[in-house]
Design brief:
This protein is an all-beta fold and 119 residues long. The protein is 0% helix and 56% strand.
């Protein structure tokens, strides 16, 4: 069984910073990519940033230059700087991974962590 455990959310003032972490554990053969999504009230879940096993990164236009995604083995981080009120959302960790050699790729999600940007 695979678990993704997130941490690091909270309340921060506009212009502040937060660092989210997500650790994947369980019987994992390999991880193809990990990423962060967010969902604000009344809106669809959207990709924030993703990083592949090779280190390639992808960012939403709204966070480019402010957020940085990084990965260390089975843990992914999201460093969020210059936070804005519109960054307020529940942030979800995602991992695209293989449970064994030759297994189909599966998508796994964390439970979500609240990020609130407000003065």
């Amino acid at each position: 069984q695979v678990q993704l455990v997130e941490s690091g959310g909270g309340l921060v003032q506009p212009g502040g910073s937060l660092r989210l972490s997500c650790a994947a554990s369980g019987s994992i053969f390999s991880i193809a990519a990990m990423g962060w999504y967010r969902q604000a009230p009344g809106k669809q879940r959207e990709l924030v940033a993703a990083i592949t096993s090779g280190g390639s990164t992808n960012y939403a236009d709204s966070v480019k230059g402010r957020f940085t995604i990084s990965r260390d083995k089975n843990t992914v981080y999201l460093q969020m700087n210059s936070l804005k009120p519109e960054d307020t959302a529940v942030y979800y960790c995602n991992a695209a991974l293989f449970l064994w050699l030759g297994a189909p790729r599966g998508d796994y999600w964390g439970q979500g962590t609240q990020v609130t940007v407000s003065s």
